[in-house]
Structures are given as C-alpha cells and as structure tokens.
Amino acid sequence: MKIIVWIETRNGQVKTASLEALGTARTLAEADSGEVIAVICGPSGVMAATSAATAGAHRIIVREGDPLSDAIADGIANELVAVISEESADVVICAATTTGKEVSALAAGSMGTSVAADCISVTCQDDSIHIERPIFAGKAHLQQKICQSPAVISLRPNYGERLEREAATVTEQDATSPSPIRRTGFQAGALEKRDLSEADIIVSGGRGLKEAENFVLLEQLAEVLQAAVGASRAVVDAGWRPHCDQVGQTGKTVSPKLYFAIGISGAIQHLAGMSSSRTIVAINKDPNAPIFNVATYGIVGDLFEVVPQLQSELKSVLQ
Hints:
Layout: E1 2-7, E2 9-10, E3 13-14, H1 16-31, E4 35-41, H2 45-52, E5 59-64, H3 73-87, E6 91-95, H4 98-110, E7 115-119, E8 121-125, E9 128-135, E10 140-146, E11 151-155, E12 169-174, E13 201-205, H5 216-225, E14 228-231, H6 233-237, E15 258-262, H7 268-274, E16 279-284, E17 297-300, H8 303-318
Parallel strand pairs: 1-4, 1-6, 4-5, 5-12, 6-11, 7-11, 13-14, 13-15, 15-16, 16-17
Antiparallel strand pairs: 2-3, 8-9, 9-10
C-alpha cells in the first residue's frame, strides 16, 4: 500500500493537523507493510520538510517553483494530483482544515473520484480502507469501506496521533502545473490567535455572557489554560465576536481534548460543531439546557460567579 499525505504549511511551519495525518498514515502503512510519502507544495517547502522529517513519512517530496509562488488551493491540488499519478498511490490523506478540505475535494474531482470527508478514524481491514465519520450533526457515526482507488480522505484535526519515526528522505521537484487562479494579496487578522480547529482546549461563550465586554472572563480563563476562545452563532450574529471564532454547523467544526461551553444553551447548530470533543464542561444557570445532554461534566450556576472561581482555582494549580 502506498499512502500520500499532503502537508499543509504556513510561513514554512507545518500545521499540527498535518503531522497527525502523517501519524495516521504511518499506522496504516505499518499494518500493511506500506509506504508513506509526504507531499509539500509551495515556497519554504524544504524548511517545512525538516520539521516533518521524523513525523512518520518514509519519503518527502517537495514541489516548488514559479507555478506555486502565489498559487492557492487549485494550484496545490494540481501538483498533488501529479504526484499521486506518478507514485500510483492507493490512499491520499489530507487534514480536514479549511484549506485541506478544499485541496482534497479539488484533487478528487480532478481524478474523477470522491472524498471520505471529515473522518475521525481510518483503519485497514482485510486489505481494504475503512473509515468512521460523524453524520447528522454528530448525532450518529457512519462506518464505511472505501472501494475506490485512490481512496481520498480528509482527517479531522485532533483525531490523529503524532508519531516519531526515523528521518525521511527529502526529494525536491519543480512544480509543473500552472494554476489559473493566483493569489493577488494577503491580509492577516489584527490579532494572532490560536487556531480553533487545532486547539487542544477551547473556551466558548454564548448569549449567557449578556454583552461583548464580558468575554474578557473567557479570555482570562483561556489565558490560564493556554486555550483558544470560541463563540456560538448567536454571539457572532450579534457582533460580539468575529466569524472566525464561531463554532457550529455554519462555523468551525472542532474536536479538542477539552471544551468549555459557558453560557451556551446547546442548540443543534452549535452541537454539530463541537459534540465530538473528548471532554465537554458545560456551565449554565438553566438545569434543562440541552448542552447538558452532551456534557461530560455540568455546572448549574451563574457563570459570573463560577468562571472567576474556576479561573482562580486553575491558576493556583497550573501556574
């Protein structure tokens, strides 16, 4: 079995979700005496290859050159498809980040196949690839066998396992597929925030916070926990937080190890984006709030009393 993993980078740094995808690929390969090939496309690829060298790949292919200097997902997908064809890959894995979902879909479309999207488990059984992924807004999990080749899969962040293996060999290649769509500019956000989709801990707030200024309570708690701050759709619609903070069906789907839902009632739209979190702590003054149906631990109380006390206790333990 030959497995290709697309490695997503930003400013020469490898995304954590891609390292998790590499770990999943290596586990598959070791179960089937296979080979893992990591593919990095774009500027600073050699720098990124250095940091990914021991994460599970047997080989790393770096595609660089003018066609990728200002390319977006279309150009990356073209290069990825070229490598898939050259290597006759059996499986292709991308992290299910915003860009990863787009690249995997474009690559699959170019090859006339489809994507097993947003998977939380990938295994090899009887020489076949089996996946598991949430459906119906996380209310159920679907287990499927992939019959197509290559099997194109996007893996949800925080569901793969990062591994340490022997250093991979690195091969540099020239990009050959000009993209019809090129980047003309890039504008970073005003603040450098932790990426919600890759965060291990997320502190999210809802309408129970009453006004935007009260999000400082969550920001202070997040600082103690080194967590990212999220928000419900109602909060974003009210203009309290930017859309990039929204967790839910029309926002980001997250799977952290620990998720705090503070002042969030638990509407189905929000549950769709966070119900696969490993541990969920809900704080709400309404004992009948739907969020308690999915919570691992629930605190019924006034968040304006509970959160400061929780922050104080955690600070004394963690700092």
